[in-house]
Amino acid sequence: MRISELARRAGVTVHALRHYERLGLLLPARSASGYRDYPESMRREVVFIAMARRIGFSLPAIAELLPAYRAGRLSITRMTDALEERAAALDQEIARLQALRAQVIEHAEWLRAQRPPRAAAPSKKAKQAPWPGPKEKRR
User: How confident is the model over 80-90, as a mean pLDDT?
Assistant: First the structure.
């Protein structure tokens, strides 16, 4: 089948298929006129790649799993291990983002505290509190 048909049937874009081919994830045959010719079996591989991408697997991580998937040797144990590793990576990213969010809120509060009262004109001699840094450096 042609690239546009595979894209439609697998629920991905033609651009994505070309990208996967450039990375060596897909190896379509070529017709005499140079068109890509995808066998029906490649639809299953593209769906696997697309599903793995949707849950955040990197393309290099997918490339590691793909040969076993193609050969029908990707065990449930191997796949659950990969999914659990992905979940752990997400937990780390969530913790990092929560810490970053807390820091952003802290800076916003610090800036809010530096605002002069509305009734009073800003004083040039008004002393500002130091910018909040990492917690271990604060007094």
Answer: 96
Q: Are residues 22 and 57 in the same domain?
A: yes
**pLDDT single digits (tens) 1-28:** 999 999 999 999 999 999 999 999 999 9
pTM of the model: 0.72
3-class secondary structure for the chain? CCHHHHHHHHCCCHHHHHHHHHCCCCCCEECCCCCEECCCHHHHHHHHHHHHHHCCCCHHHHHHHHHHHHCCCCCHHHHHHHHHHHHHHHHHHHHHHHHHHHHHHHHHHHHHHHCCCCCCCCCCCCCCCCCCCCHHHCC
26/60 same-domain check: yes
68 and 94 co-located in one domain: no
Number of domains in the chain: 2
What average pLDDT is seen over the chain?
A: 90
Q: For position 12, which CATH number holds?
A: 1.10.1660.10
Choice between 132 and 35, residue whose per-residue pLDDT is larger: 35
128 found inside a domain: no
